[in-house]
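User: C-alpha cells for this one?
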Amino acid sequence: RLVLQATAQLGLSRFHLVGNSMGGWISLEMAAQSPRRIRNMALVAPAALDFDPPPIEIFLPESMEHIRMLS
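Assistant:
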C-alpha cells in the first residue's frame, strides 16, 4: 500500500514494476490490489510465500486500445 501511495503522490498513474525475492511477493500483492496501475511486471526469484492470485481476467486489457497503450 505504501508503494501505491508513493507512486500516486509522484503523479504516476501507471508504472513498470520489478520485484526480487520478497519484493516479488510484494509486487504480486500490489498487482492484485491495483492491476490497472501496473504497466508490466518482472519478477526475479520471487519469494515462495502463500499467494492466492486473483482471476487472470483482471490483468487482461479491456480493448485493443489498451493493448496499443501498452506498446
